[in-house]
Amino acid sequence: MATPVAELHMHIEGSLEPEQIYRLAERNRMDLPYKDIEDLKSRYEFSDLQSFLDLYFANMAVLRTAEDFADLTRAYFRRAAAAGVSHAEFFFNPQAHVVRGVPLTEVLDGIMDAVASSEREFGLSSSAIAAILRDQPVRDAEEIFSEIIRLQAPIVGLGLDSAEVGNPPSLFEDVFARARAEGLHVVAHAGEEGPPEYIWQALDILGAERIDHGVRALEDPALVERLVDEEIPLTVCPLSNVRLRVFDKLEDHPLRTMLDLGLIVTVNSDDPAYFGGYVDDNFAELGRAIGLTESERETLARNSIKASFASESRKAELL
Ligand code: ADE
Ligand code: ZN
C-alpha cells in the first residue's frame, strides 16, 4: 500500500493479549478464573456483542496501575507500527476501571505517557478518545466526563461504546453537548448491532463526526444518502463483524458495496486481541475473502488519513 494507514477504531483494552493477561496477573499478584492460558484462549468464541463484552470486561481486571496501562498502550503501538499504521486514534473506557477501584489518574497517566512518546518510540502519532459506556447510567457518564475535564486529560474526543441495543445515543445528549463545548471531537458506535435509527441519533443528537461501525446504515437508503452527502466517515471493523456474528463470513461483508455507494469507509481492528488480528490482518483477510483491488486499498488508506483528527500538517505529511 503506497499511502500510510491510520487506525481510527480500536479499544486499547481490546488489545490485551492472553499472554499479557497472564503477565499482568502475576505482576499484580492476582488469580485468574481460568485453568491455564489454553483455557482462556478457548473462550474466544462469541455469539454476539454481549458475549464478547463479558470476557472483555472480565479480563481488564488485571489492569491496575499506570505502568500496566502504559505497557498495554505501548504493546499496541509496537504491533500497530508493524502493521503499517502511521497514526492511531484509540478508545479507552474510564468507567470500566474506576468502577473496579482503579483511580482515573492511574489510567490517564499510563495511557498518556505512551501517547506522548509514540512518535519518537514507534514512529506513529496517536491520540486517545474517552469512550462512554452506554449500558451504564447517564449520571455515571456525566461524572466521569467531569473528572476527565477537571484533570485536563489531553484526550482528542469523546466516544460511545458497549452494549448497543436498547441504549440509544439520545440518552447521552447532554454529555456529548458538553464535550463539543469543550472543543472535543465527537464519535459514536452506532449501527453495529443497533438499528439505523441510532446512526441518525448519533448524527443529529450527539453531533457525531464519525460513526464507528455503521454497517447497518445500508438498511436505510436515506441515511446512506446523508452519510455520502455529508462525507461522514464510517470506521468499519471487518474481522470484528464476523467474530461478533454481524455477518456470517467475511465473503458476506458489505465493505465493497459501501465503497461503491460512495461512503467514506475505513478499515480498523476494533479489539484485535479478541477478533483475530490487527489492521494488517484485516486487510489481508479482506484481500483473501473479497479480493480488494489496489485502488480500493488506496482509497481505504487515504480515507483513514483524511477521516482522522490528526493536525492538518500531520495529514499533509501522510497523504
Ligand atoms: N467495546 C469494545 N469493543 C466494542 C464493540 N465492538 N462494540 C461496542 N463496544 C465495544
Ligand atoms: Zn468498537
Automatic annotation (TrEMBL):
Site (Important for catalytic activity) location in chain: 213
One example GO MF annotation: hydrolase activity
Reported cofactor(s): Zn(2+)
Binding residues annotated for Zn(2+), in chain numbering: 9, 11, 189, 270
Domain Adenosine deaminase: 4-319
Keywords: Hydrolase, Metal-binding, Nucleotide metabolism, Zinc
EC number(s) per entry: 3.5.4.2
Ligand binding (substrate): 271
InterPro entries reported for this sequence: A_deaminase_dom, ADE, Ado/ade_deaminase, Metal_Hydrolase
Textual note on the cofactor: Binds 1 zinc ion per subunit.
Active-site residues annotated for this sequence: 192
Gene3D superfamilies with a match to the protein in the record: Metal-dependent hydrolases
Catalytic activity: adenine + H2O + H(+) = hypoxanthine + NH4(+)
Role this protein plays: Catalyzes the hydrolytic deamination of adenine to hypoxanthine. Plays an important role in the purine salvage pathway and in nitrogen catabolism.
PANTHER family (alphabetical): ADENINE DEAMINASE
Family the UniProt entry places it in: Belongs to the metallo-dependent hydrolases superfamily. Adenosine and AMP deaminases family. Adenine deaminase type 2 subfamily.
Protein name: Adenine deaminase
Source organism of the structure: Rhodococcus globerulus
